[in-house]
Amino acid sequence: xxxxxxxxxxxxxxxxxxxxxxxxxxxxxxxxxxxxxxxxxxxxxxxxxxxxxxxxxxxxxxxxxxxxxxxxxxxxxxxxxxxxxxxxxxxxxxxxxxxxxxxxxxxxxxxxxxxxxxxxxxxxxxxxxxxxxxxxxxxxxxxxxxxxxxxxxxxxxxxxxxxxxxxxxxxxxxxxxxxxxxxxxxxxxxxxxxxxxxxxxxxxxxxxxxxxxxxxxxxxxxxxxxxxxxxxxxxxxxxxxxxxxxxxxxxxxxxxxxxxxxxxxxxxxxxxxxxxxxxxxxxxxxxxxxxxxxxxxxxxxxxxxxxxxxxxxxxxxxxxxxxxxxxxxxxxxxxxxxxxxxxxxxxxxxxxxxxxxxxxxxxxxxxxxxxxxxxxxxxxxxxxxxxxxxxxxxxxxxxxxxxxxxxxxxxxxxxxxxxxxxxxxxxxxxxxxxxxxxxxxxxxxxxxxxxxxxxxxxxxxxxxxxxxxxxxxxxxxxxxxxxxxxxxxxxxxxxxxxxxxxxxxxxxxxxxxxxxxxxxxxxxxxxxxxxxxxxxxxxxxxxxxxxxxxxxxxxxxxxxxxxxxxxxxxxxxxxxxxxxxxxxxxxxxxxxxxxxxxxxxxxxxxxxxxxxxxxxxxxxxxxxxxxxxxxxxxxxxxxxxxxxxxxxxxxxxxxxxxxxxxxxxxxxxxxxxxxxxxxxxxxxxxxxxxxxxxxxxxxxxxxxxxxxxxxxxxxxxxxxxxx
Length: 723
Ligand code: BDP
Fold this sequence. Notes:
This protein has helices at 5-24, 42-51, 62-79, 105-110, 112-118, 143-158, 210-221, 241-254, 269-272, 284-300, 326-337, 359-367, 428-436, 448-452, 483-494, 500-511, 516-537, 568-572, 596-603, 613-616, 631-655, 662-694, 709-714, and strands at 54-57, 84-86, 95-99, 123-130, 133-140, 167-170, 176-180, 226-228, 260-264, 306-309, 343-347, 378-383, 407-412, 463-467, 578-579, 619-620. It is α/β, with parallel strands linked by helices. It folds into four domains: 1-30; 33-169, Chitobiase/beta-hexosaminidase domain 2-like (Chitobiase, domain 2, 2-Layer Sandwich), CATH 3.30.379; 176-501, Glycosidases (TIM Barrel, Alpha-Beta Barrel), CATH 3.20.20.80; 535-581 and 618-714, Alpha-glucuronidase, C-terminal domain (Alpha-d-glucuronidase, C-terminal Domain, Alpha-Beta Complex). Helix 10 packs across helix 11 (326-337). The longest helix is centred in the last third of the chain and has 33 residues, at 662-694. The relative contact order is 0.08. The structure holds beta-D-glucopyranuronic acid. Beta-D-glucopyranuronic acid (BDP) binds at residues 190-191, 232-233, 310, 314, 349, 388-389, 416. The site of beta-D-glucopyranuronic acid (BDP) has 10 residues, from loops.
């Protein structure tokens, strides 16, 4: 080949260019839903170019500085033009980003009603008239509102939403929008499937990893404003000065993104790091120790959020070790935190190793009688269902049953019981189901969402917590679609009435593409994925059948663990007569913990929704369902359905190959193959095992297991992650 000098030059330029591009690019998936790329749609492009032509940005502190930086970054990348940003207004401005107190009297009074609605964190994005000229205004009462407003504006741009008649008045419906990291000080993560903890305690406080900032920025972009850095199975060491200094360094990074830091408090810390011989919450030395400790914490972190506490649960120490109650423990800490406006978030995830009553009943029984006894800076954090983050559970009966206590919703984002980071499961579908559930505690339309956002019982403070799925993996969450669960959790914490469809659509557009040929089918995958995992793991109300300890894969046969409620056999109760947990008045009577209207529906197998049937009932294998099938056949077909759904997900994914890069396509395809294999494993192992009781053939249409039951029982995974 004859290459001329000018060709060579061109080649050289291209080579340099591509090196420059690739070195400026972050690894695949690292940018999450925040990758800003050039808008190619001409009308949208020119609309946004026009409106951002000249911007008056009223800056100030570090939060506003981050907002401004974000705006510049987004505009430059998406509009392909350097933006003209000024710090004082002039006639050529097409856009203003200004807090309320920076607006003239006329605008302030014109927008008065809006400012009253948006509180400290909300924002307004609206076209207004200044000196007879239309400008786009982003405004807020406070700095964080401006930051959130800027992110929103950039997201609208990225999703190519037209700005015609834009009039957005938004405020979060929940005050505390929190991530719970189950991160240990040695950087392992309990139930973490995306690498190690982001917090590099060894190098803190001096070394600030760029990831801390990127983490905070991602959270701010969806309105998350609180982070609990450490595992609920807590280590007292984090409360020593050596660690508090490190925590303070993280808090300094997160503050300019509107995020407050919280820690888990080990109840026995006064003994372990304080040299006392008791942690009795009524002991005066213990009280003094905590008061001093809290004062010390606030010296390091003046805006410290407070403590999250797991006490007297799964072997963790707590007030009951000293014959005291949860109220004694929570109020003692709350009293210490009160002068600093700190909060106690006390978990209701309790069940006792000595109590033989249905585990599903224990939290309600223990906590509901305390309603009204907690101090007003105590919130009680309740898991979404009464057992433990299963693929499907009915809503926790505590929601609605404690009108005088703010209840925080605890969702799990990390997929401990839902296929870890290898299965594509879009969790907002699960969250939505719980939030929409009817508690009937104040008549009709008393949904869980209304309990959580405080509107049902007029609460002064409200909260939602998500057990984080974030780690050191390049793409933060292991599975690229697990990013959607972080994103979706944040969106629902902001607005618990959003639909999972809306969230899926937003996330896909922000992360992958605006092309509806891509968005539509992939949204179908996401929406179907939650029901698929229920079907292939625990259909029709079955639960907690995962193998012991690590919870990876099926283990319905496990029945020899020391505590009854640790055994899957405790939950499914399969025998020759049938399967399921009788929680009606003939059984554990857990249904009595729901409002009578709801209990009535659950109590009768004829009215109990099929998805909760075996949660509430023990039914014979030949029990006839509404569709005329017997229970055994229906159950087997559900397992098969789950497998079929994963197959459909794979074929849909194959159809969208051309809309994304090969790498993006391949990573999900490989993961879907794992998911399919594991779905079949679940189906085969579960059905072979239950068949030993039902004694019935598999109905037509159900795939035949390749191996026998002994094989599935023999599988061992000593190094399954997260344990
Ligand atoms: C269970 C997890 C365990 C947690 C516990 C909790 O298996 O690792 O410590 O929940 O929420 O689901 O405290």
